[in-house]
Amino acid sequence: MTRRRRALLLLGLAALLGSLAASSVRRREGELRRALGPSVPVLVTRAPLAAGAPLAVARPVLRALPRRFWEQLRRSSQAAC
């Protein structure tokens, strides 16, 4: 087998295995998204805020969080109050 033929064979094999890996990752990602369910926007801060404190100090950011985790956090924060 010539070097050129071996290089082409290895390149084709790499492309085939790469596409198989990509399809596997896509399938797993889809399964995970279905298992987590829809996401909701949640306001997240870098540090805890005192009542009446300006938001600029804590640098708030909107993040997407799966709804089922948000519901658990909401219940635990209501129980703490």
List the helices and strands and how they pair.
Blueprint: H1 3-36, E1 39-44, E2 61-66, H2 67-80
Antiparallel strand pairs: 1-2
Describe the overall structure.
The longest helix has 34 residues. This protein has two domains: 36 residues; 31 residues, no CATH class. Helices cover 59% and strands 15% of the residues. The relative contact order is 0.11. The chain has a two-stranded antiparallel ribbon. The protein is built from two helices and two strands. The mean pLDDT is 87. The chain is an alpha+beta fold and 81 residues long.
Q: Span from first to last CA?
A: 75 Å
Helix share, percent: 55-70%
Question: What is the general shape?
Answer: elongated
Q: What is the beta-strand fraction?
A: 5-15%
User: Reading side by side through the largest sheet, how are the strands ordered?
Assistant: 1-2
Largest sheet: 2 strands, antiparallel
Arithmetic mean of pLDDT = 87
Total domain count:
2
The count of helical stretches stands at 2
